[in-house]
Specification:
21% strand; four-stranded antiparallel β-sheet; Trigger factor, domain 2; 12 helices; Alpha-Beta Plaits; 11 strands; alpha+beta; elongated
Length: 434
């Protein structure tokens, strides 16, 4: 398309194009559109394809004009971006300065962000550690013990609570004598001395509940004070001293199941010996270990990619990612304080940077994924779900793209793994999987 375009460099990654398209382009496309309408439009009183041009223009002029303008803008912007070797990282903002007509040229500008222009750091500069693990009998027995614990039979107890017992309490939290609903609750259930994963404040609070339930009977009431963390999500509670009252409603003592045929059958292993059971556990442990090692490897590579590649990121991409994370938090009914917002911004920046790095790596190493690659990927999953996943991939484009992105990511990770420096670090099973 005939046009005059000028590229302007604005602040950061912002760019704009000033484009002028001569009126003759508009006239040509407008007239061609009118001819197309004549062949397609059906109007009462006229035979198909015989509607006079003046009737078409009178009835459809505004729509034709609107469509022609959009078409010219779309084509001229696309060509201008291609000519300047630009790829937009945001929607374009259109500003029309002079609208096209049979008398006037079309003059407009578009503003947008571009992807950052940077040179990827050499992959052989990346240095990572990879855990080297031998699964021992002690590891296997530890997992078997956990499986038993997951299948404990709980029986109501009338004696004092001991370590390992399940306890159900109602609790109320008071600050300066006033009950606070956000730190009060009913039927709170925990296992005394159970290991808790979470922030330090959460772990400490659980430990306080453990201590004040230990050696107590059903019906007992205990009081204790707890200094709430200064970074607690509720500002009106953060850093305050909380007076807790707990009432023990139930105590349950757990009975571990015996390792016998009845137990193995419950786990789907009919007529299994103990050795076969251990072999099955080992197989699952091996799969879990490999998955965890791959996850650790990917995380380490991502950290190295971020460390060795620094560049400005498009504001639009960052804003979209922050909005995605905020929506995820809202769906989990979580509120965002200032500290959480800062943490989420850091996460969003990391995700956007990695997305751009992966895009660039995929381009430089010609990593492409077809629909057939997706179906091959699915064929390696469980046979019971293959047909369902294939149907979903064919019907849901977003799901198809998710798998494609996963395949691309795996391909890039493998390529980096083959080029980077890897140091093997001896670790035990629990260090890696827990």
């Amino acid at each position: 398309m005939e046009k005059i375009s000028k590229l302007n460099k604005l602040e950061g990654l912002n760019r704009s194009l000033d484009i002028t398209v001569p009126k003759q382009e508009y006239i040509t496309i407008f007239n061609n559109s009118v001819k197309e309408y004549i062949t397609k439009v059906k109007l009462d009183g006229f035979r198909a394809g015989k509607v006079p041009e003046n009737v078409i223009i009178k009835k459809y002029k505004d729509k034709i004009h609107f469509d022609v303008i959009n078409k010219i803008i779309e084509i001229s912007v696309s060509e201008s971006l291609s000519e300047n070797k630009l790829h937009t990282a945001s929607p374009t903002k259109l500003s029309i300065k002079s609208e096209a007509s049979f008398e006037n040229d079309l003059k407009f500008s578009v503003e947008f962000e571009i992807y950052p222009l940077f040179q990827l750091s050499a992959l052989d500069k990346i240095s990572i550690e990879e855990p080297e693990v031998d699964i021992t009998d002690a590891d296997i027995n530890g997992v078997i013990s956990n499986i038993q614990k997951q299948n404990i039979k709980w029986e109501e107890s009338k004696v004092v609570a001991k370590s390992g017992d399940k306890v159900v309490v109602d609790y109320n939290g008071f600050i300066e004598g006033k009950k606070i609903e956000d730190i009060s609750g009913e039927n709170f259930t925990f296992i005394i001395d159970d290991k808790i994963k979470g922030d330090n404040a959460t772990v400490k609070l659980y430990e306080a509940f453990y201590r004040n339930s230990l050696d107590e009977k059903v019906g007992a009431e205990k009081k204790f004070t707890f200094n709430m963390a200064t970074d607690y999500i509720k500002k009106e509670i953060a850093g305050k001293t909380v007076d807790y009252t707990i009432n023990i409603k139930h105590i349950y003592h757990g009975l571990l199941p015996d390792l016998n045929n009845e137990f193995y059958k419950k786990l789907g292993l009919d007529k299994s010996t103990h050795e076969n059971f251990k072999k099955n556990v080992l197989e699952h442990m091996t799969i879990e270990l490999e998955q965890r090692k791959q996850s650790i490897l990917s995380a380490s590579i991502n950290d190295e990619l971020l460390k060795h590649n620094d560049f400005e990121i498009p504001k639009n991409m960052l804003d979209n990612e922050k909005e995605n994370i905020r929506n995820q938090y809202k769906s989990m009914m979580k509120e965002l304080d200032e500290k959480s917002k800062l943490e989420l911004e850091t996460i969003a920046i990391k995700r956007v940077k990695l997305n751009i790095i992966y895009m660039k790596l995929a381009q430089e190493h010609n990593i492409e994924v077809s629909d057939n690659d997706v179906y091959d990927f699915i064929s390696k999953s469980s046979q019971s779900t293959q047909n369902e996943l294939v149907s979903k991939a064919k019907e849901d484009k977003n799901y198809l793209n998710q798998i494609k992105n996963k395949i691309i990511e795996d391909g890039i990770i493998n390529k980096i793994k083959n080029k980077c420096k890897i140091t093997k670090i001896k670790k035990n099973f629990s260090e890696v999987v827990n």
